[in-house]
Amino acid sequence: HRGYMTRPEGTVAYLLTRKLAIGAEIRTNPHNLNADDQTSAYTIFAGWTPTRNLSLVAAYLNIGPVLGPVTGVTRHQAGPYLSVQAGF
């Protein structure tokens, strides 16, 4: 494309309690390259911190066909995500 285009992108989170948050994120992608087959990506997540030293994040991600021309994988890459972090 010639010129500039505005593409929305953002994250929204809501703190349900002091230890539990939910939210969503969206990112739109332009199709500026012939080899670029990316589409919009989104994430829905929940984060919980039961103690000061432990946090858990569960999410569902849909990032589209990232690197399709390079890897040959053209299907949408989507699925669950789980992260556990402990610090002492």
Using brief descriptors, characterize the structure shown.
88 residues; mainly beta; five-stranded antiparallel sheet; 1 helix; 5 strands; 5% helix; elongated
In brief:
With 88 residues, this protein is mainly beta. 5% of the residues lie in helices and 50% in strands.
Describe this structure in words.
- The chain is mainly beta and 88 residues long.
- The chain has one helix spanning 68-71; strands at 9-15, 20-27, 41-51, 54-62, 78-86.
- A 5-stranded antiparallel beta sheet has the order 1-2-3-4-5, with no helix packed on it.
- A hairpin with a 2-residue loop joins strand 3 (41-51) and strand 4.
- The model has no long low-confidence stretch (mean pLDDT 84).
Which segments are poorly predicted (pLDDT under 50) over 5 or more consecutive residues? Answer: none
Q: Nearest-angstrom radius of gyration? A: 17 Å
Query: Helical element count?
Result: 1
**Global morphology:** elongated
Mean pLDDT: 84
Q: Proportion of β residues?
A: over 45%
Count of distinct strands = 5
Question: How much helix is in the residues?
Answer: under 10%
Describe the strand arrangement of the main beta sheet, using strand numbers.
1-2-3-4-5
Distance between the termini: 50 Å
What sequence of helices (H) and strands (E) makes up the elements?
A: EEEEHE
Largest sheet, in brief, is: 5 strands, antiparallel
Structural class label? mainly beta
List the helices and strands and how they pair.
Blueprint: E1 9-15, E2 20-27, E3 41-51, E4 54-62, H1 68-71, E5 78-86
Antiparallel strand pairs: 1-2, 2-3, 3-4, 4-5
